[in-house]
User: What shape does this take?
Amino acid sequence: MAQVTRQQLDEAIGSFQYEGILTREEPYGSGHINDTYLLVFEIAEMGTLKVILQRMNKDVFTDPRSLMENIVGVTSHLRKKIICQGGDPDRETLNVIHTVDGDPFYVDSKGDYWRSYKFITDATSYDQVEKEEHFYQSAVAFGTFQCLLSDYPAETLHETIKDFHNTCARYEAFEQAVLADRKGRAKEVEKEIAFVRRRKETAEYFSRLLEAGKIPIRVTHNDTKLNNIMIDNKSGRGICVIDLDTVMPGLAVFDFGDSIRFGASTATEDERDLSKVSCDMHLFEIYVKGFIEGCQGKLTEKEIELLPMGAKVMTFECGMRFLTDYLEGDTYFKIHREGQNLDRCRTQFCLVEDMERKWDTMKEIVRKYGNAGR
Assistant: This one.
């Protein structure tokens, strides 16, 4: 997308139901998809009010109207649940600020889509696991997200990114990339290609369970990284799940699994020294404990049993996507150096192998906490 112009920003700011005098505006956050700004307003004797203003990336999210319909529906549901439980709905879920015309988004004169949220004060999101407690709190928060939305009709949600966690479709895309070999790279990654092909059944695992009706479709977040949890600065508690753009119908085990893939790894996602890459069983246990606690018995016995498989499949899928992108010439994931997507692929496959070695341990940890979660 083209850069935001001054005219666009002023137009958007003037189109939402803001109060007070704008005293500060600045780019905000570390996201790479949407253009995000923090706005600060002075309201007479009442002090300051902070809000988030975002231009949605319509190249990534091609149907912003449906996306916002998802967000409004889910946050309205969460708000009601939080109020019933005596919580603070202004801090424990995102609050959409409407336009002056009463809409949850604004379309500017260039056809770009904007939205705005109340800023969650006195809370922080972390890009990396700095404290084990933060990882635990993120697990509780994402589990609570599952619990509060367990009665939300997932089938009414729009699919904001088609086949996002359809591992079978990802496998087919991988095979097509190998066949096309647009950049002539297939020869140098024969080992990685063979790794994927040996695990074709892993790609098909959950689709078969779904077809057999053995696991339910739920409302899922689909981007369960640590930095999508706001952690209260005073209590240290994970209070709010943010970045709801990828909220769609999906599998709870995938939300769990993506957190493990990212948060329980002992190395960075593009680490070249694979001897540093492993799945930390201590962090795995911390997350299992928190996630099951947060779900408060809403997961089925089968879902709990499948949590390790969710971690393996999400890690495998991500590695396969990195490999596919490398074969296609690095067209989807941003790279900062040659071969970075291949390095990313290799770390994920290394994690998969480590999970396979530790499979009995992972299953035992889940059994330990699973009995308490039912």
